[in-house]
Amino acid sequence: MNIMKQQVEKYGVQKVSIAAVIVLIVAFMLYNLISNQMYKSDLFKAMDQMEIGIKKAEVMVDQYEEVWNGAIESDYGYEMDNGETAWDFDEAINMQYDIFKEDGNLKELESIREVVRDTMKDLRNPPSKYEKAYTHVVSMYAHFISYAKLGEEPKGSYQTYSEKTDTHLGYYDTEKDKLKAVID
User: Fold this and answer.
1) Start-end of H helices in the chain
2) Is 123 helix (H, G, I), strand (E, B) or coil?
3) Distance CA 132, CA 162 (A)
4) Which 8-state DSSP code applies to residue 89?
5) For 108-153, how does the pLDDT look when each residue is reduced to its tens digit (9 = 90+)?
6) Nearest to 144 by CA among 42, 47, 63, 59
7) CA gap 71, 80 in Å, rounded
């Protein structure tokens, strides 16, 4: 009887050990699945936030280009949206900056950049499945920041400004397409 009791205890312990290992494996798999889904959700969140910021910056960039070009081509001053007249392109750019500041566009774009920055912090240390996606979202973020800064305050000549905004927007779009391709 003693031998049978030992065998039951031995096999019972083995069964409990096997069951515990199976539970741990399943728990680990669920943890990975949930972590991957949360990371993927954060990637989409970052993309959505950047899209909002890009659209906001694009309106501002277009407006800067419009007043800049209008002031260059105008012989008798350029009438701004607020009814004032800019007599040269520097004045037109400064007036447009003040308009954006007064109507809250500058503050709103800055706020969007901060939200995106915080979301990007959450994306550090990606699961191995999303390492390529992380590379693309970081590159996308860099071009988003550069483009947004140009939307906040233009620098350089009209031609270089236009080239820089086109370049950053183009690279942003390219990285966005690459990111979409690697996210399943």
Assistant:
1) 2-73, 89-102, 105-122, 131-152, 158-182
2) coil
3) 30
4) H
5) 999 999 999 999 999 999 999 999 999 999 999 999 999 999 999 9
6) 47
7) 9
Q: What predicted TM-score, i.e. pTM, was given to this entire model?
A: 0.82
Question: In the numeric block, which tokens belong to residue 92?
Answer: 């037109």
Structure tokens at 176: 């966005």
Q: Which CATH architecture has domain 40-182?
A: Up-down Bundle (1.20)
Structural contact between residues 5 and 96, judged by C-beta atoms closer than 8 angstroms: no
Domain ranges of the chain: 40-182
Q: Phi, psi (5° rounding) for residue 79?
A: -85, 125
| Lookup: tokens for 69 | 């070009």
Residues in the chain, overall count: 184
Residue 78 φ then ψ, to 5°: -115, 125
Q: Residue 129 corresponds to which tokens in the numbers above? A: 């499945």
